Each structure stands twice: as C-alpha cells, then as structure tokens.
Amino acid sequence: MRTYHAFAATGLLVCGLVAPSSIRAEQAPADEPADKIEVEIEAEAEAETPDLLDTTPTVESDFGFLEQQIYRGEARQAADHLQTMVQQVEATRHRYHEDLLLPLTLLGDALMVQREYGVALEHYERARHIARVSYGLFDPRQLAVVYREAEAYKKVGDLASAGQREEYAYEVLLKAYDVHDPQVLPALMRLGRFYLETYNYLAARTLFNRAMNVHSSNGTDYSIAAVPALQGIALSYRLERFPPYYIATASDNQRLQGPTPGLTNSDLDNQQVSFNSFPAGEKALQQIVEIQRRQDPQDAEATLDAIVALADWHLLFSRNNTAATLYSHVYEQMAEQGEDAAAFFGAPKLIYLPKPSDPTPPDVATQIQPAQGMVELSFNVSTTGRVRKLKTTESQPPKLMDFRVRRSMRLAIYRPKLIEAVPVLTEGETYRHEFEYYPAQAPIEPGDPPVAENNPEAEVSES
C-alpha cells in the first residue's frame, strides 16, 4: 500500500527529543505517541553540507576507502590508520600543514561514530584552523569541517556552541557570495532548520523567507527546490501557534527556548510575533500545492501529500468545512487512482498533541532511581478531529500524571476518519502516555489541580 505523508509536529530537539530533517511524517497508527517533534523538511536537490573529499583520483584512492570503512563498522581500525597518517605528516612537515586537513577531519568522523564526541571536536577544531590558514579566514572550503563541529556540539548537548557554528557557516557564505546567489541556500536552510529545532521560530522564519527571496530572484520560486523553504515558513507559524509542550506557567514557556540567535537585529529582519498565524501558513502551503500541480509530469502522490498538509492546516485552525472538503477531494482522487483511500483514512491520525510536563526529577544528591509510569486514556474523535468523552482507563502510579495527561489530550487534534469521503465520529480510541517518575515523590505534585475524575467542571468541555 502506498503511504501518503502529513504535515505533523509535536516535539523539539531542545527538549531532548528527536528532530528529523523533514516536516513530512509517515502515516502512523492513531495511538502512536506524538512526543517526537517532527521538524522535518524535505531534502533539497543540492547538498546542504559541503563534500569533504575532492573528486580527484588521488584523494579518492587515499581517503575514499577510509571514509567508507568508518561507516561500515570499522571506525576503530580507520581511526588507528588515520592517527598514524597524522603523525607521519607532523613528523615530515608541521602541525598545521594543509596535508593534515583530510586525515584530521576523517579522524574526527571515526571518533564521532565511536561516540567520543569531545575528542572528535578537538580534531575538527584543529582541521578548521588549518583550513582557515591554508585557504583564507572566510573561504567556504572550511564549511565541511564547521558543520561537523556543529553536529558534534549537538551530540554533547551544547546547543549554544552548535548554533554559533551554524551561524558562522552562514556568515562565511554571505562573504563569499551575493545574498541572492543560490550558493547561499544550503546555509540558509541548515540554519533555519536549526532554529526550528531549538524553537526559535521567528529567526527560522526570517531565514526561510530569505531563501524564498533567493528563489524569486533566480526564477525558482515555483520549482520543487522551493518546497523546503515554504514548508519551513509554514512550520514556523505552526510552532508559534501550537507549541510542542503544554504551556501552563512561565517556566513551562522558558524550557522551550533554545539558544538565543547570535545574528543581529538587521539579520533577523525584526520579525514580530504573529497574532494570526493562519493566513501566512496557508499561503505557503497553497504555493506548495501549486508547485506540485505544475510539474510535468505531475507526481500525483506528491500533489495529494501537499493537499493533505493544507487540509491539516485548516483543521488545526478550526476551518473545519474547508478541511473536510480537502480531505474528501484527496479520498476521491485516491479512489480514482486505484489507491486504498479507505485504509489511508480508516482511523483518526494524531496531528497535534502538546506533550505534558513529566514529574520533576529529585536533586541529584538523593540518587533515587526512576521508575516507569503510564497513563492510558479512552476517548472519541469527532468529525472535526477534536477529543470528546475523555476517560482515564489506567494509570500507574494512580493520579500522579492523570490530570496533566488529560489536560494535554483535551487540546489534541486528529485528522478524522473518513468513510466514503465523509468525516465520521470514531468511538473507543485510546492513547497511552509513558513517563519516568521517582517513587519517593508524593502521589500528586504540589500545585496540581485535582484530577478530572474528581472535578465535574473539568468534564464539561469533554462531553
């Protein structure tokens, strides 16, 4: 069965969650937890990270094999060989000779595979210094190493340093090329994606808008190459309106914030918080639909993907009639093309759920070992994708997280089930939230309201 894709997002790298590289998420079962943020943006035609190796036969023969060895389970052997090469160059030349650039960088790669991130960073830093000395302070040839540094900093959780490296790479390309040169697009997209992953959606929006300006200047704003930037623009508006975590207090909002962008105000184009995220996001998604329709030959699956993403956008903002019309159109088109529309729309699909805050860990000095807890809910999904008749069916430990999970689930939005192209009510859906807790804690954390089962007023909105 062919799988269509949807525009979905519910978590961020800054929160310690996985952040894939595209906003298109595979169709998943209705009860799949949405605690992974889908900050996915389609890969562009051009590489976003410069190649390290040249295409000359000499370089390929000397280092190509070692690069392959690193990623086929022989990283330690490759590291040993590369260390020997580094020592030989140091002995015959000097510690900052140009011939050390490739072996030092590949040695860093081998250490990254072995999860020795700190040592890898030392080798990358030295390699970057050699590139700057050999080619010039702002030569783009250093970017293959700079981006490796950024990835290593992400691995050790130093997002501030990772952001500095991503921003530096962007500034290097701006010095090397005109602001409308397509050569700056990879850096714009990488940095925009990093800002999305760290919840700096205003800075991300600026960069994706700039990417679209580059496309417009080069006549590619209605080409497939422009789709990732348009997806980024829409996702920046989505994150602004639909945060990945439930925001109950100021501290909840603070924990979403990643490192502050280091670019100047002029670089950020003075982006302001939007009071209505719907129109701009809709415009970007509509342009993606138009781009797909203009392709010759047209990719029917990609076109339907784009329409589903647009329908999800309308559903998120309670434009329920338009969303239903678009879903029905996709259903009918799939049926005409011989696809299994009934299976694709056969169950509600979770498209938004703000993750509840988990129990606060105790002081490190207490050394309490965490235990696994869970809350399981049952509910109905209405024809507009909203949760109704919410009930707790099981929780362990009882009442520790019941209120928080239910509070988040009341804000959940599902793509509704369709039968014969018509949205229908779905009864008996379930959702399971798993979390770590610390057994010495009290059953209910201070400041939590009473659970909904003991609070009749809390149930009114769910019926």
Summarize the structure in short.
This protein has helices at residues 57-70, 75-92, 101-113, 117-135, 143-155, 159-176, 185-197, 201-217, 227-241, 250-254, 278-294, 300-316, 320-336, 341-344, 402-409, 456-459; strands at residues 5-7, 24-26, 349-352, 371-381, 387-396, 413-415, 417-419, 422-424, 426-437. It is mainly α.
Q: CATH class of the domain at 350-462, anyone?
A: Alpha Beta
Give the second-level CATH assignment, the architecture of the domain at 350-462. 2-Layer Sandwich
Strand adjacency order, main sheet: 5-4-9
β-strand number: 9
The unreliable regions are 1-38, 451-463
- Strand-residue fraction? 5-15%
Number of helices: 16
Q: What structural class results from the helix and strand content?
A: mainly alpha
Query: How many strands, which pairing sense, and closed or not: the largest β-sheet?
Result: 3 strands, antiparallel
Calculate the mean pLDDT score and round it. 83
Reading the helices and strands in chain order gives EEHHHHHHHHHHHHHHEEEHEEEEH
CATH superfamily caption of the domain at 350-462:
TonB
Q: What is the CA–CA distance across the termini?
A: 36 Å
> The CATH topology of the domain at 350-462 is what?
TolA/TonB C-terminal domain
Q: Assign an overall shape.
A: globular
Radius of gyration: 25 Å
Helix percentage range: 40-55%
